[in-house]
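Schema walk-through. Below, the input block comes first and the output block second. Nothing else is stored per chain. Lengths vary across the set, and this one has 257 residues.
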Amino acid sequence: MAPYIFMERNDIHIIDLYKTVAKVDEAAEALKNLAKQGKKVLFVATKKQAKQVIADKASSVGMPYVIERWPGGMLTNFPTIRKAVKKMTTIDKMTKDGTFDNLSKREKLQITRQRAKLEKTLGSIADLTRLPAALFVVDVMKEHIAVREANRLGIPVFGMVDTNSDPSNIDFVIPANDDATKSVEVIVGALCEAMNEGLEERKAEKVDTEAAGEGDAPKRERKAKYPVKKDRIKKEEADGEVESNTAETESDSNTEE
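--- output ---
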C-alpha cells in the first residue's frame, strides 16, 4: 500500500486522498460500463460497519449483495448455491398453492426454519442466475475467501483497501478507510451513482432501438411491394410476347394457304 500512503504520523498511516479520488473515478467508469451492458456486480461486505450501507446502495441499483457470512464456494461451486436458492423458491410455491397447509405442525416448523435460514444467507442473491461480471469488496482482508474465488475464476475484483491490506490480488484498488461507515457510504454511493447512470443509458438506448425498429417496419413493407410489382410487369410482358407470337403464327399459316 506504500504508493497510496501520503505520510505516517504517530504510527498511523494517512492515505493520499488525491489518489483515492482518481481510483474511485476509474472504478466508477468501469462499473458504469458493466451496468450499461446489463451485467451484474456482486457487493460483498460482512463487517458490521458496512452491512446496512451495502444493502441499501446495492438494492438501489438492483445488484445482488452478501452481508452475512460468505457461503464458501459461492462462486467456484455456483450450481450448488443455485440449488439452495431453488429450494427456497419451491418452499414459496408450496406456501402459495396450499401444499404447505396440508403438512403436519412439525414439518411446517422445520420448513419455516429452513426458509428463514436460506433467506438470511441467500435471499439477496436470489435473482443472480449466473456468475457475476465483477465483485465489489469492502475490507479485502476479511473477505479473502471471496477474493480468492473470484481470482480463480478470473472475475475482476473492485476493493476498498486499507493501509493494512495487500492490494496485489485486487484489479481495481480503492485506497480508503474500510472501518468507517461514512467512508464506505461516500465511496459506495459514488460508485452506485455511476452504475445508475449506466443503467439509465441502457434504458435510453433500448428505447431508441425500439423506436428505430418501428420506423424501419413500413420501409420494409414498401420494399416488399416493389418485387411484387416487378413480377407483375414481367408477367404482363411475357403474356404480351406469347400473344404476339401466337398472332404471328396465325398470320404465317394464313399466308401459306
